[in-house]
Amino acid sequence: MSVRQRQAPTVTSEVCTDQVPEWKPAPRWKKSQPLSAEIWEYVSFISQSVLVTILLGVILVIPRYFVVTFFPVATEPTLEWWQTSIIYQVEPRLFQDSDGDGVGDLKGLTDRLDYFDYIRVNAILLGPVYEHSGSGVTSFTEVAPALGTHQDFKRLIESAHAKGKKIILDFIPNHTSDQHQWFQASRKSSQKYKDFYIWSDGVLLENGKRGPPSDWKDYSCHSAWEWDEERQQFYLHQFSRSLPDLNYRNPDVVAEVTASLRFWLDQGVDGFRLQAVDRLFEHEDLTANIKSEDEMQTPCPSWHHRFLSNITESRAVLDHWRHLLDEYGEKTGQTKILLSDANYEHARSVMALYNSSDMPVNRDFTKVGRSCGGQCIGRIVESWMTTMPVGKWPNWVTSYHGNERMVTRLGRNFATAINMLVMLLPGTPVVYFGDELGQNNAIAGPGGKESPMLWDISENAGFTQSKEKIGHIHPDSQMLSVATQKADDTGKSVLRRFRFLAKTRDQPSFHRGTFKSRLINKHIYSFIRSYESEPSYLVMINFGTEKSSIDFTEEDLRLPSHGVVEVNTGNFENDAFALETRVDFKVIELAPAQGLVIRFYPERQDN
């Protein structure tokens, strides 16, 4: 069955807070109403008569054979691997160095695959592995020499697949480096590559010189147009002048980029995260200026970007790439995932991407700061869940490369609370490497470099065998390292709790269960996950700034008088909420950064 034909299981969701009225989507399976006694007696008589007639016919007509047919029972769709797994994002250059040069590489990542078994991760999202200059790709099909070779990449794929792991590649189709051979040929107006990028003569100024064709701005709030002396024209760049935008209105560009995706699929990758997909098409009129005086008063208004974003046209190209992945999925018998990543301000504006990809990346939590308490978290969850198309699957991202980690913004004491939230909400958690350790953005070295993975308490945290000290190792590496946290006999370290949460997430109530946002106040966010006859779970987390309590018996939640603690955040001062402890639902008090998962069986609802 092709990916386009697949349909993700519906996540049933109810939102019930002080601010938001209860929301109920159409149920997936509607139970039949009970029959009256008289009707049932009649139906029973007819059924028995028909059954006797059929059996007599079978015995008389086919005396040597007795055939029994079972009518198939409706079953739920099988969950895809990207729905059941945690997706773990790795920056290869920061994960493990295998050759002592101080740069992480593909061999090092392959050597660390056992770690993913420990944290129960089965899908690895690789940051860019391509040959590059600065932050721009110089070849979409070559591995960056610092990371290894194609042979190293092939070994990683084969080793990961042998362990049941999937490999997803980051891919940025919007632009290339200005050192890419395509751009160098385009500057020379080489026939094939002449229109691979977006060029313009600009406008003739009063002084006789040429100026940009429009006042569009890039993400640095500078002109999105750069003059090229060799070609004597302006080219468009949305991110920086060294990253010229490709021209997706040129079919040859679509064909070349598609060939690059096909190349990696032939290597065995299991899918892609396509970044900046809303930027593939700009306004067709390159001379369209911003005319509003109010908008022009703002130094770098977001309105500038309305000329540089076109999700509608981008979807046609995404559909083409979706078809490509479906083709490989059918050929290999293994589903290929397509994640689409777009820059947007509101969840509603990106939901159209569900039509062309398995999931648009949800970065709403990456904007959360310390002032965001229970009600704020609830609004963020509600925003995605209530605007997501019916039958689609959510995802939750808290951190990514180049962005301040959520644990930095909230405080390291919130590390397990954050992990508890994203692991147990409906959908797929996307975890940035080190989040399972509570690693924040503290930088020790010059140049603002991000710290590599913290493996042990050695001088370079086990990241490299280089005898030279790496300058950007996290200053708290000994406390945060994998080795230190694995050895924690109390089981309360962030890593040990992450592993416990990953195991909890494998319960049917979290993979397939209904989701109900429940009692929420200024500090505490809570929700319930339930699935048929399986145990239900109440998840409650204090994201606020002070202690707070909730009485879960105030509303008709069909809760029993008590439940049992399944998981806690490991930062409680006493054993009142220790694992497997009986908890009264009457009043539960949590301090900031504390969270609980309470197991219970709902009270039976009479018909």
UniProtKB/TrEMBL annotation:
Residue ranges of domain Glycosyl hydrolase family 13 catalytic in the record: 89-474
Any Pfam family: Alpha-amylase
UniProt keyword annotations, A-Z: Glycoprotein, Membrane, Transmembrane, Transmembrane helix
GO BP: carbohydrate metabolic process
Gene3D superfamilies linked to this entry: Glycosidases (3.20.20.80), Golgi alpha-mannosidase II (2.60.40.1180), Oligo-1,6-glucosidase, Domain 2 (3.90.400.10)
Transmembrane regions listed in the UniProt entry: 39-62
PANTHER family per UniProt: ALPHA-AMYLASE FAMILY MEMBER (PTHR10357), NEUTRAL AND BASIC AMINO ACID TRANSPORT PROTEIN RBAT (PTHR10357:SF179)
Protein name as annotated: Maltase 1-like
Organism in which the protein naturally occurs: Lingula anatina
Gene (name only): LOC106181874
